[in-house]
Amino acid sequence: MKKKVTIKDLSLQLNISTATISMILNKRNIERFAPETIQKVYQLAEDSGYRTKRQRSLSLVGPTDKLIFIICPSLFNPFYTTIIQGIESLARPKGYTTSIHTTYWNKATEAAIMEQAREMHVAGVIFTMIPQQTELAYKLGNDLPVVTIGDKQENLDLTSVDMDNYNAGVQIAEHLWAKGHKHIAYLSTTINQEHSSRLRRLEGLQAVYQQQADASLTVLSQNVTPEYELNTPEIEFQVGHTLTEKCLSHHPRVTAIVCINDMVAYGSAAALQEHKRNIPQAMALCGFDNIFPSKLPGLGLTTVDHALPLCGKSAFQLLLQAIDAAANPLQPSHITHVEYKSKLVIRQTT
After folding, report:
1. The whole model's pTM is what?
2. Residue 186: what are its φ and ψ, rounded to 5°?
3. I need a labelling partner for 6 at 20 to 30 A (CA). Which of 50, 109, 272, 304 fits?
4. Domain made up of 1-61: CATH architecture
5. How far apart are CA 147 and CA 297, in angstroms?
C-alpha cells in the first residue's frame, strides 16, 4: 500500500517549514511569500498527490459547473466594474454565478487565486486584465476554460477580448497635434512590461510626436507597489495630482497632459484647478477608457472609448464557447481573439 504523503514530507523535500507550506496551501497570508516559493509548493503537492483537508472536502462535491471566477486588479476604478457588469448581464440569465477576486497586481495573490480556481473545479476563469504570470495562466488553461480581457498581444496563447492601446495612443496624439499642442506630457502609474497597456498607449503617442519637428513628449510616472495600492483606494487620483504638480513645476512648455486612464486624469484636473490653470485654455487634458464619470457635466473629459460593456459580454460568450468545447473532447481546440476598435471621444477638456 502506497504511503500517504504528509506535509512533513513536502517540508523535507523543499527545505521549507511545515508552517509555511500549510499557509500557502490553505491560502493564509499568502502575500508574504514569493511567487516562486508558492509555485514550488503547489507543484510538489500536485505531483505527490498531497491534499489539504479543505481540498479533500472539495473533491467530494464535484465540479462547481456554474461558477465563474473573475480576476481583476481592483474594484475602485469603474473600468473594471463596467466590464464585470457586462459579464454578469449575460452570465446570470444563463444560470451562472460569479466570484470576483482582486489581486492589486500582487503576483502571489494572482497565483493563489488561479490555484483556488483549479481546486474548486470552477466552470471557467475570466481575467479583466492580461495575467502578470502568463505561464501560470497557460497551465490553468489546460485544466479550465480561460479568457482574458486587455491589451492586444500577438503572442498571447489564450482566448481574449483585445484592446488596441497603441492605436488609442495614436488617436489622442493626432488630436492634440491638430489642436496645436507641440509639447505634451504623459502621466502614468508604474510603467513596465507587466503593464503592457501603459506601454502601448505611450508608444502610440510617441509614434506621432517623434515624427514632428519642434515637438516633445515628457513621460512622468510613479511606481506603485501592490501593498500601497491595496491600502490606498484613491491611488490613481493621487498619482494624477502629484505628477501634474511635478509637470507644472518642471516642464513649463507642456500645454497638454495625457493620463494613462480617466481616474488619473481626475487627479490631474484637480491639481490644475488648484493652480488656477484653466482647462483647456491653459492646459488641455486627456484620459483613456471613457468610464461613466468622464461624461458628467463639470469636466467633460476627452478620452478613448473601448466599448467596455461589450468587452465583458464578449468575454462571457467566448468562455461559454470554451465550456461547450471542453464538454466535447472530439471537437478541435482553438483560440479566439475578439477586438473592438477604440474610438476617440472629444469633450470639453480639449
Report:
1. 0.82
2. -115, 120
3. 109
4. Orthogonal Bundle (1.10)
5. 36
Listed by start position, the domains of the chain span 1-61, 165-305
CA separation for the pair 271, 263 (Å, rounded): 13
The rounded distance, in Å, linking the Cα atoms of 286 and 323 is 40
Q: Which three cell numbers stand for residue 252?
A: 513649463
Which residue matches cell numbers 472530439? 330
CA–CA gap between residue 63 and residue 283 (Å, rounded): 55
Instruction: Give kind and range of the element (H or E) at residue 184.
Output: strand 183-189
Per-residue pLDDT tens digits for 270-291: 999 999 999 999 999 999 999 9
Separation of alpha carbons 268 and 236, rounded Å: 10
CA-wise closest residue to 117 among 81, 66, 68: 68
**CA 174/CA 183 separation, integer angstroms:** 13
Cell for 314? 464578449
Of 205, 232, 208, nearest in space to 219 by CA: 205
The x, y and z cell numbers of residue 235, run together, are 491611488
- What amino acid is encoded at 20 in this protein? T
Phi, psi of 304 (to 5 degrees): -120, 130
Residues 202-212: pLDDT tens digits? 999 999 999 99
CA pair distance 303, 342, nearest whole angstrom? 10
Cell of 346: 472629444
Domain covering 165-305: architecture: 3-Layer(aba) Sandwich (3.40)
